[in-house]
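In the design runs reported in the main text, the only information available to the sequence generator was the tokenized backbone. The following block is the verbatim input for one such run; it is reproduced so that readers can re-run the procedure and compare outputs position by position.
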């Protein structure tokens, strides 16, 4: 599960792994691009489960 802030809904939303659009390896960790329930694309840093998701 990922918790990230959605500026459209102005709240923190909880998104599951099925909402992942893209994973990026960065020097600061794995950036996860998620699609919110509202359709907005949000970026979160996965701090708790650094496992990559199999395609
Ligand atoms: Zn949203």
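Verbatim output:
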């Amino acid at each position: 599960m990922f918790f990230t802030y959605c500026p459209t809904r102005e709240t923190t939303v909880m998104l599951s792994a099925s909402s992942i659009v893209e994973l990026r390896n960065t020097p600061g960790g794995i950036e996860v691009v998620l699609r919110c329930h509202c359709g907005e694309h949000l970026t979160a840093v996965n701090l708790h489960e650094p496992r990559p998701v199999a395609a």
